[in-house]
Amino acid sequence: MEWKNSLVALYVATFVSLFSLIRLVARKKPWRSTYWYGREKQPWLRTPKRRGAASTVLPSTAEQNTRASNSTHLYKDLYHKLQHLEQYPQILPTARDILISLFSETLELASQKPKAGILSIHEYSRDALSDFQRKEDDKVMDQWEEYLTRRMAKGPREMFSTKDEAKWWLVQSSPVKYVDGAWLGHINKITTPFYLRHVTKNAWQVLSEELGDGDIEKNHVYIYRRLMEVVEPQLPTGDDPDFIHPRHKLNEHGVWKAAVAQLLISLFPHQFLPEIIGFNMHYEAIALSTLKAAKELKELGFDPYYFILHISIDNGDSGHTAMALEVAMEYMALIQKRDGDAAAQHTWKRIQAGYILSKCLPTAPVCPSFKNPTPSPLQNIERFPRSDLEAEVIRIFKAKAAVSQKIHCSSRIKFGGHTITEWLAPRALEFEQKQMEFLDALSNTKPWIYKGDSERSRFLKELSWKGRMFGSFTPSEVCTVREWIDSLGGGQGYNNPKFYWHFIGKNEIPSEKIFQEQDIRADHPVFSPVSANSICTQVLPSISCLPRAASINATVIPNLSIFFPLWFAHPCLLEDFVCIPAKTTSPISCSILKILRAQSGFGAEDAIVAGMDEVRRNNNIGLVDLGLEMVRRSGFSEPTCLRDVLNTWKSDFALFMLHLCKRPTENVGLLLGLTMAFVDLHNTISLSSTLLSEDSQHLLGVMVDRERRNIDICLEVLQTTPPHFLDFCRGYHLGRAEIDRCFDQTSKQ
Ligand SMILES: *[C@@H]1O[C@H](CO)[C@@H](O)[C@H](O)[C@H]1NC(C)=O
Ligand SMILES: *[C@@H]1O[C@H](CO)[C@@H](O)[C@H](O)[C@H]1NC(C)=O
Ligand SMILES: CC(=O)N[C@H]1CO[C@H](CO)[C@@H](O)[C@@H]1O
Ligand SMILES: [Fe+2]
Ligand SMILES: [Fe+2]
């Protein structure tokens, strides 16, 4: 502990002087901006502007806080569900809708100052972007220097006034720290088109470093957890269902919202790739609040290691800032080359949208003694009812609640976790908070309500002739409800989901359409209604022997039409284990990350993070690259994506694996068992001079060593849980049976 503390002290001292030095050397024009990271007042709680007379009386701060904590509840709920998507796949369409309204909300805000920030780059060029990023960095460094000058002149701390406040800040920040890296969680999937893989792999390296490259001591979430063990020992881990319980008093609305935005944007890696790349670029830039926090935490006797780490690892020369910028530039160059300038400009808009989302949702809470006591007009004021129309709608529902038993008994409508019967229980809508929750939950529940579109809203159909609630509302009441639905989201104002589509210049693609047309060979995420595990359990009797089947005869050429689909699909097996940062702090997931690194062709884990070295390394040959080489050498034309492979060579087993891997928690044993079977295959192929060049054979051989080392670690852990071990054996034998089929068939010919 002693040595570690002095090391930390040294770090802080070094960074303080290092940054001052950088500033002295690279002194540019005096800095004049009014921009302050983390001080910018963001309308976290902005309500949609709706029709009707707005009251001019502002609620008190206490009132605002109550309201905020209540709507925070919605984000907390999402925070939990998004980290346990296996259990809640049905929230995906809503998740996409919320993501798009967050884009809209932040873009609309940023568009008020189109000459500032990233929106000032109308036409993308490499120079314009790197210029911009350097200026942003300079700004932070100037601010940091001014801060240091103030502090040197005996100025007070600017983040935390007391030790208690620092503690409060650390604890309140935990929701966002516990999802550190989440926005990149799904960035590099087997379903990613092959031409994009170079870009997405480089972005994945940033994720890998957030997760410590498989070394738990370097895993950012783990490091924060260690800090919490000292600061607030009873706080559960971020993926624990108890974490969102109100008794922990984690009530900083903006922190939850930012954390949920990170989880949301990661979810749709194919639909929102440019946005993720833009988000990453802003998120990985160094923030003034991190610099200040590192220094002030140290002064107050807290371990600032987490923050120090984020100063060093995110640096603009070789760290995450540089990597994120490089990823964006490479991506833009690729689009420009493939699809032309117009497509590139369109893509640039979307990168901006992602950047703005991160920028406008600050993650650092402001301590009570630094909070602005008078709410600025830009800050959202959540008053309720928010319009006359809303007041009228609430009056109607309250009246129904009083006689509720009569009306909705036959309706199956459920939203916000309650049935309509529960919402409208007698006296349930007595309090304003409940009323607001009710309206917000109802208006966010498709297909019952489509904001701004009463025609499509099923809720209204239920109220009409032949609807199950027909007659329970008078015609004028139905009319009011219709007006209310039409007033939602459709017009001007914040939370208008259409703003995003308008900004990127595309027609809206509704979520329900997207999720009807999903193809597991090309899209993500896709959940099958049936549990693949249960199918597998039926197919395979229990086998509990230690899995070591006979080695495969390497001189036999496999039946390529069985082999290729397996080869291209099986990299999916472990992909989804590392997408939720809070779930990456176990020995198994660390080993899995190392296997994934080996399989994607990343260098062996070093004592220090690779950073830009990994981006500049160009021989990172992974399973997909090896697959493409084998396809070429066998005289076939190169596939462009997994769907292409599976169109050419049909394989039920490949589809089975794709379904299975979407549920890593449920299928951990099976997936690892299958992986082990494929390591046998890797080993066989590494000996086959027909399919691979000598260099590639060697690379694959090295991969096998790394895979085996880490599978053994996983196996050791699984053996302590008999059901998982049983699954492991099942998975292994299942995989080997299919792999052996590739080889048997040819030998029979
Ligand atoms: C491997 O297969 C080749 C050709 O089919 C055969 O000649 C050889 O004996 C086999 N080796 C083993 C160990 O089965
Ligand atoms: C390879 O397997 C496929 C599918 O089982 C089969 O139709 C085909 O005849 C096999 N080809 C060879 C050369 O064995
Ligand atoms: C409906 C609801 O959850 N209301 C809560 C809003 O927040 C206040 C204070 O935190 C609670 O007392 C209410 O029960
Ligand atoms: Fe991090
Ligand atoms: Fe980072």
From TrEMBL:
Which Pfam families does this chain map to? Haem_oxygenas_2
Q: Which UniProt keywords apply?
A: Membrane, Transmembrane, Transmembrane helix
Residue spans crossing the bilayer: 6-26
Q: Does the keyword Transmembrane helix apply?
A: yes
Q: What is this protein called?
A: Uncharacterized protein
